[in-house]
Structure formats: structure tokens, C-alpha cells
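Homework-ish question, so no full write-ups if that breaks the rules, but can someone show me the predicted structure for this set?
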Amino acid sequence: MKPLLITVIIGVTFGSPILQAQAEKDSSTATSNVRGAQSPRIYADGRIIFTLKAPDAKSVQVAGGDGLGKGPFPMTKSADGVWSVTTPPAVPGFHYYWFVLDGVSVNDPGSETYFGYNKETSGIEVPEDGVNFYHVKDVPHGEVRTKWYFSRTTGDWRRAFVYTPPGYDKASTTRYPVLILQHGMGENETGWTKQGRANFILDNLIAEGRAKPMIVVTDCGYATKAGMSAVAAGPGAPARNFQQAFSAFGDVVINDLIPLIDASYSTIPDKQHRAMAGLSMGGMQTLFITLHHLDKFAYIGSFSGPIVARINAGKQPAGAAQPPQFDTKTAYEGAFADPSAFNKQVKLLWLGAGTEEKQFHDGIKGAADALKASGVDVVFFESPGTAHEWQTWRRDLHDFAPRLFR
Amino acid sequence: MKPLLITVIIGVTFGSPILQAQAEKDSSTATSNVRGAQSPRIYADGRIIFTLKAPDAKSVQVAGGDGLGKGPFPMTKSADGVWSVTTPPAVPGFHYYWFVLDGVSVNDPGSETYFGYNKETSGIEVPEDGVNFYHVKDVPHGEVRTKWYFSRTTGDWRRAFVYTPPGYDKASTTRYPVLILQHGMGENETGWTKQGRANFILDNLIAEGRAKPMIVVTDCGYATKAGMSAVAAGPGAPARNFQQAFSAFGDVVINDLIPLIDASYSTIPDKQHRAMAGLSMGGMQTLFITLHHLDKFAYIGSFSGPIVARINAGKQPAGAAQPPQFDTKTAYEGAFADPSAFNKQVKLLWLGAGTEEKQFHDGIKGAADALKASGVDVVFFESPGTAHEWQTWRRDLHDFAPRLFR
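A: Not a homework solution, just the prediction itself:
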């Protein structure tokens, strides 16, 4: 990349057809773009050029998730009404983003949409040099199946996605272990396939012989018990709201989902062949559900999931990343109180965080250290250079899945 | 509905909390909304109230597909910066829509997104009184599976969706017929599930015993042969572009997709158990592909698909709905020239159109009439009151599927 060109491109760009041609030569369309869309484009060093045609707009910015940079980045308008900006090099991986058009957050028509922030949101896939464990490769592929089911817990129809490993249909007598894998706050059951590419991660690990063939189930982590009103369980909400929402979802998992999966697929329907993991809120839910049902799960993973001292107590914000009084003796109703008994019951307790999500990382690492010191076997995994974002969670799954069902 | 209230609500609305409360009481959130979104809302008579918070915008309109009304509908701003409008009663069914925010078409954050117009687009589901053949019901449900495959035709990885009927997994010795079902221009392989709800239509028909259990495959109708450049095959494009694009997709279907499906699923891999249908461009593709491969298909359906006289001739716009010189003797390289032979080879030729899409309807009906007059057995189906929109195509599938594999 020539320094002169960089200088010109950052901030202004694409006013001239010559500059546009040069930028197109040096950059590639994002794989997250819709068919045929020429914007956004990514340079080899991770800088991204975003454009939007909006001749009548007063101001346009681009903003997004952690790894995109600090933002929002003001865009500038060319003579033909196209706004553009080149952002600093982004962290590799998937980032949500959006335009702020005269004050309103809107999607980029050039991007696929991904469910996040409780809505369909644009996203950009920034390649990581030499890393392809989540790419579609020339290996046998499993399937991701939509499974509609009626939940007695919620009194309505729900949709789960079920990954069946390569060869599942042909292997009529083989039975498989099950991983339940949950998304984060504001996301839904599509996240682990669309943003996370969990199916490709599993396909590749299985092809390499590094992970056992398994069934992976993703469901929507939001649930309201039949006849009750939905409660807000987001940042700042009282702990009792989390308790109520997590409890409803826990009932879905234990009373609806697990029986459904065991009845519908060739599973090994016991604790030794059942795992649960989740990211962020999904990690909190995983700990909440599995630690109260140790008869049902032998493998537990929490990816950037805050460890809370007493989610049932209602005395502290359950969303707090740093547990104010994490006590291995009392946390989760004493699930860890007898380390030796816990280690016999649980074959894997796996906690992870990115190094750049300090507010999550430090609390989770602190809890992992305290658990280790008390004698609880725990794996703590760090994703270098990534924050509260999907590249962290892809790496988490890539480390976690090979440890399952051994 | 009280007339006074209607008068007040149309156009202005929601400036007052009392009016807002009344509107919320009389209307329901659309089922196409994302989780928790309170807008858009639909009244019992099909009027829709759209809202968007945009305090700094100069102008906001809502616009959309045929059944939404003429539009665009100017929205008006309340004191709190929320723009709103109540549109006239919409045609029942699914309609794409978008906001025009200071001149830019943007999605509604309250809506799910649906791939149309070559991008992710908002959509609204307007209920039809007493009609539920495409609803999720308490019947056995099939699955929709993602099937990734490498296409030798295009030289890249492609994604198909495969509906397997209820009980498919348990019935290890049963083999099923296959319907290949294609989307329209600007859409993709997600359309028949998300907009069309084909899985629920089939689930319900099968539960009623009206359709034979079948496998339904939807693929992306866009394809470019390996090593070639993509050509534009949209409205106004020269016929040779359609020829090139349809030919590449035809090769995908014949050489990649059918062998893949027959190798991967419990199919009956012969002509008598294979159907193809599609909507609009997908209907054109269906006729183009099946009529050139009558050794492979015994059932053919074109839903609002223009019938062209000589797609290979390159002398007329292939996108023209009204065939200028449709001649049953020469059309499709003489596929219909010998009606008796055609009727022996093809068990069903099914053509449909909505009564409100005159530019498609008249050409299709004209072709159907000419074919009938010449002795070709053809079913012509009219969807009353609907235009070039998904409610037409849902009804088409609902009529078409029960006629298959008899």
C-alpha cells in the first residue's frame, strides 16, 4: 500500500473514478456482503472502506461492535452523493456495524443481516491471516436443521437449530453426544451458525479427527413461562428479572428441549454425553442451568460469561461482570463447595474470555483462579487480542469442542 | 372501529399517549416483527401503522411491494420525533417494505429481514381471515436442512435448503419423491422458507393427507459458470444474458444438484418422482430447464413465470411477460410441438398467476389457452385478488403440491 494513496483514501475517497479504481484493486469485497454488493471492501491490513449513497443526507457515520474500532466514524460526501470513510484496521473476525443516517441507525444494503442488538443488523467479516478453522472447506459437511417444537413451558412454538455431523443420515445405528450451544444477549438461535460458523468449525474439527462427531443444538435463550409477562433481563435490570428469564429458559432446556432432541435424533441420552455452553448471557445461562442440573450435564462451557456469586439472591446486579463477592463455597447454591465431589460429577468446566474485554476477563479469570485454588478442576482459556465479539467465541468453541466426550 | 378514531389515526397519530394506547388496543404487532418490537402494527381491516423514531430527519416515507398499496406513503413527525403513518388496508399475505429516510431506502429495525431486491429487506405479514394453510400448526413437522455443496459448474461452494417431510429420519427404508422449488428475481434460496413458508404448507398438506410426503429442495437461482464473469439478467437485460445465466443454473440443477440430492437423501431417483417449480424468474427457469430435460422431470410448475416464445433466439426481451409470438409449435425448441407425445412424457404442466398482476396473468393465461387448444394438457390456476407477491405463490404451492406424484 502506497502511503500517498492511504492518505488520500482515508476520509475522502471515491470522489474520483481513478481513486475508486485504485481502491477496488487494492481491496476485496467482504464475504459478508450480499450477492454482487461492491461495498464494504476490506484492505489487506484490515482497513475497511464503507460507502452509502445518500445525496440528501445531512450527516452519515458508520459505527459498530468492539473490534471495528472506537467509532463512530464520520463519513464524507463526494460530488455524486456517495458518503464514504476508510476505518482503521479492524480486529479480525465478525463485527456488527450500522450507518447513522441523520441520527438514525440503519443497515447497510450491501451487507447480509445478522440478529444482534435485538434486531437484524449489518455485519462484516474481516479475514484473519492464516486462520481458516471456521471457513467452508473441502471436507464432509454436516447439516443444520430447523426444528420447530411446541414448548409446554412457554406455551408457544419455538425454533431450534440442530447440527447433525457428516454421515449422520448414513450411520443409522450410530448414536451421538449432544452439545447445547447458546447465543448472547440481543441475539437469537441463528447466531452460532451465521455469525459463529459453528457448523464449519465442527465440520473441520471432525475432519481433522480433533473433535468427536456430535450433535449441536442452538435454541433461543429468551423464554417466558406460559401465562406470564415477559420481563426485561438486559443490562441494568434487577437480578430477579434475570432469575425469572433464566429460570423459564432453564425449564425449556430441561423439560422441553432435551427430551425433544433425545426423542428426535440418534443421541446418547445421558449425562456423560451431554454438554452445554454459551457466550456472554448464554454462558451465564449455561452455568445457571447446568450447575442446578448436574445429573444432566458432564461438560460445561462459559464463553465470556460473567460468573455471578448468587444469581438467586437478588441482592446484586446479575449482569455485573465482576462478581463482588464470588465465594467458591456459596456460589451457585454451593455447587463448588465440595471440590472433590464436583470434579467427580463434572468432566469439564471450561471458562474463557478475550484479553481485550477487561470487564469480563478479569472477573472470569478471578473466578477461575479461586476455583482452582479451592481444588475445582477448571480450564481457563484466553483469546488474544479480541474483545466481547464473535472471533473470541469462535476460538472458544474451537478449543472447547475437542475436549468434549473424551 | 370508530370512524372518529380512524380519521385521527390516519396520517398523524401517536402524538398523544391516549391515541397511542387506543391504537395499540385495536391493532396487533405483525408476526414478521422481531422479538419485542411494537411496530409495525396491523388493524383487523388490514391497515398498517408504521413508525420510526428519527427526530433529525427531513422526510420519511414508507414504501413496499405490490400488496401494500400504491405508496410511497409520507409519514408525519410527532413532537417526540417519531414519524408515523397508517396505510390503507393491505392485501393479505407477505409484503416487502422499506422506509425512505431523507431519500435513502432503509430497513425497519422492528422487522425481520427477507432477501429480496438483491438485499435484506423488511417484510410484513398481513393475516388473511380464515386462512391458515401456511401457519405453524400442531401437526408433525418436517425439517429444513442447510446443504452445502461444491458445484463443479460454478467452481464454488453453494448452499441449498432441503425440506425433509415429517418422519423422514425414522422411516429408514422409505424413499421419497423430490420437488425442486425456486425463488424469483432478486431473491435467494431462503425465500421459499422465510417468505413462502413452504415447510409449513407441506407439513399441513401432508398432515391432511392431501399431499404425498416429499423432499423439497430450494437452491439459489443465480449461477455463473466457473471462469466466466457474471452477467446481468434483470429487467431490460438482453435475452442472451438470461440465456447465459439460465444455462449456468440449468447445469447446476442437472449436473450438480440432482446427483447431490439423490446421493444424500432417500429419494426415488427417477423422472416419475421428480418435479420442478418456481416463481417469476424461477418459473421461467423451470420451463427452460425442464422442457430441455424431459427425461428428468414429469411434473412442471411455473408460478407467475413469463412464458417466452424463444428464450434461445435472442430476438426479444426474455423478461417480457407477454410473449409477442408464442407459438406452441416452436416455443421451447418445439417441446410442445407434438401434444400427444408431450402429454405422455409430462404428468403435470401447471401454470399460475394472480388476477392483479395483469402484465403476467394475461400472457400466461394466453399461453395456457393456446396450449390447451393445441391439445397439451395444462392446468391454469388463478390467485384471486393478489398480484406479483408471495400470497399468490403460497396459494400456487398449496394447489400444486397435492397434484404431484399421483
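Now go work out the reasoning yourself. Hint: Residues 3-126 of chain B form a domain with the Immunoglobulin-like fold (CATH 2.60.40.10).
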